[in-house]
Amino acid sequence: MSNNIDCVEKGPLTQDYLKKMDAYFRAANYLSAGQLYLLDNPLLREPLTMDHVKRKIVGHWGTVPGQNFIYVHLNRIIKKYDQDMIYISGPGHGGNFMVANTYLEGTYSEVYPNISQDVEGMKKLFKQFSFPCGISSHVAPETPGSINEGGELGYSLAHAFGSVFDNPDLITTCVVGDGEAETGPLATAWHSNKFLNPVKDGAVLPILHLNGYKISNPTVFARISHEEIKKFFEGCGWKPYFVEGDDPMTMHKLMAETLDTVIEEIKAIKKHAAETGDTTRPIWPMIVLRTPKGWTGPKVVDGNEIEGTFRAHQVPMSMEKPEHLEMLKEWLLSYKPEELFDEKGRLVPELAELAPKGNHRMGANPHANGGLLLRDLRLPDYRDYAVDVKAPGAIEAQDMIELGGYVRDVFKLNQENRNFRIFGPDETMSNRLGKVFEVTKRDWNNAKVDNDEFLEADGRVMDSYLSEHMCEGWLEGYLLTGRHGFFASYESFIRVVDSMVSQHAKWLKVTSELPWRQKVASLNIILSSNVWQQDHNGYTHQDPGFLDHVANKKADIVRMYLPPDSNCLLTVFNHCMRSKHYVNVMVTSKHPRPQWLTMEQAVKHCKQGIGIWDWASNDKGSEPDVVLACCGDTPTLETLAAATILHEHLPELKIRVVNVVDLMKLQPSSQHPHGLTDVEYDSLFTKDKPIIFAFHGYPTLVRELTYLRHNHNLDVHGYQEEGTITTPFDMRVQNQIDRFDLVIAAVSRIPGLGSKADYLCQLMRDKLVEHKQHIADYGVDLAEVSQWKWHSIAE
């Protein structure tokens, strides 16, 4: 029977087949509405009572019927063309549609055997939806076939393009809600077609679902003319096809014919490119689908129009009035469930045959469970890129330049696998990763002129688009479909994608608890152009608060590293690229900086994440008088400089220098897997000695991470929202993280120093005045600061 159906699907459309599609559409609508309302009596085979209805109705209906309509049509396309396809739902708050369709195709019951394809399973399917101890009302990680969280309004199209890069046989259908289309990330995502290689990449089929309204307002696209919409998408480089109407049978015929045209056009584009090698950007097709909001649902409730209005956005009726029960019954029975499901509650065989089989089902496609496809990167030995450090601080290097050599060779080793890319908005050269252009170029499939640099349609550096949203969204889609990459950004502008990273962390947290979801490569984020050197950008480019944002996410998912030099950065980066299912944040410098550790020392230090730098300390065999702690490249530099000043003027002082690479080491082990135990923490920081902590970011973060520790004799110095265009050292002075202020803070907290402390503090204040006068006169830092060199204080 299956083979006969397949033959029919590959042939011309028939009225009989369209009727079957409509029946499948009705079945999906019935299951979607049932999830909203029913606790029991799933097929209405006994009189409906209020005991069968959920007491609190929570969910969305407005977008659901349109997406059910799309899904059944895509099933036909998959079978007709043997097409590899996944579905991304932009208006994903209508999660009941995806649950309904994966249940009908059988995937849902395979993943969750307790939700069986029978009456009892249908009852459980209905009850669990948007119900305590059940499932979310939006498309969620728990839903088979999803890679886009329903709470992530605006990112669907970016995820879709990320999913097809280096996936030449995949078509990702991305349904864009007309309310979602008004968000910034989605609005700019239409230009992603300028970065698609028709030979090496797959294709994205956007379907803009116009149903007229957001929560309580009309949408912009719904209220502009057909001609204006057409011109808009043509101007963005698309060829729009329109499917509009409200009569199901008419719409089925129009949608089926349009999809055939669109898919054949996509295949023709790719065939031409593959046969000729011509990767010139084609004009890709897309669909504008206009259906009523809440299509096929209640027309009028309590005297208010529902279908085709904003009132259909959530639930059509609240079930607070007795007459609502009869209306619900009429609505559900309008789908004729007795024609759709057999006596046992299973979809009747002639309709079940409409769904694809095996991994061709969109709910079972491995691309939507990317860990199934994930293959480890081939990575070079990071130790081969070590900076040769003969003694601490003896040479300078630029950490990101050194990392660039390593990343270049990652590209070399994975040229055939095509499973690695860099993402970031127009900052690869600025962030000193330029060595990668020795082996690859920027991805760009648009017009070029003679003086352009490093542009080609097959480039693997995704930095030709000045949008943090887009680059980060592409990377998420790339990772979630089983590949590797990292996102490099200016530290201040990573804040643009706070919510995206937050949602991805939530996705990873939930999927880590689902045994059928396989782990994906970590979301690795490198933050450079950091707060402490903004001599030509100034105040707007100063914001280290991303660390605070990430620190609040689930401890099992987030990791934050602040390597103090190149060898530590290489060690940390190599670790992060090998990891899975984390959000790893690395904060680093791109400017010339002293190099502190040999590669051997860096490996040991980064493995522990925190440690005493014995070569910078002189407290061996005794308790320290003060602990100088540091985290980040600039705080490390200033802390070591402060240590030399203290030793020069107070040689009897016992100083311990503690450097932190893994920020989460500061948290107790009970709160974070990387956290130190109290015994370990106290062995580094003591239980009562003063700690002067120089931190890269906002001081409050260190206080929050350490508030449960024994030693509260803690003075944290970090960014205080001070400084504009000025010298590098003056940035530190204005935020009191400079060596002179650190010395003042240290001697002020050490008891028993007497007049020695007074005179040293006066000297430091004099130095601060001298510094201000010097930069005002000459515009550069004092020579004793800019030319400072480390000399050992260890006994």
UniProtKB/TrEMBL annotation:
Q: What cofactors does the UniProt entry give for this protein?
A: thiamine diphosphate
Question: What EC number(s) does this enzyme carry?
Answer: 4.1.2.-
Q: Which residues form the Xylulose 5-phosphate/Fructose 6-phosphate phosphoketolase N-terminal domain?
A: 13-372
Per UniProt, residues of the Xylulose 5-phosphate/Fructose 6-phosphate phosphoketolase C-terminal domain are: 590-790
What are the BP-aspect GO terms? carbohydrate metabolic process
GO MF terms here are:
aldehyde-lyase activity
UniProt keyword list: Lyase, Thiamine pyrophosphate
Q: Give, as one word, the top-level EC class.
A: lyase
> InterPro entries from the xrefs?
Phosphoketolase (IPR023962), THDP-binding (IPR029061), Transketo_C/PFOR_II (IPR009014), Xul5P/Fru6P_PKetolase (IPR005593), Xul5P/Fru6P_PKetolase_C (IPR018969), Xul5P/Fru6P_PKetolase_CS (IPR019790), Xul5P/Fru6P_PKetolase_N (IPR018970), Xul5P/Fru6P_PKetolase_ThDP_BS (IPR019789)
Q: Which PROSITE patterns match?
A: PHOSPHOKETOLASE_1, PHOSPHOKETOLASE_2
What Pfam families has UniProt attached to this entry?
Answer: XFP, XFP_C, XFP_N
What family does this chain come from, according to its entry?
Answer: Belongs to the XFP family.
In Swiss-Prot or TrEMBL terms, this protein is called: Probable phosphoketolase
* Organism in which the protein naturally occurs: Clostridium oryzae
Instruction: Give me the gene this protein comes from.
Output: xpkA
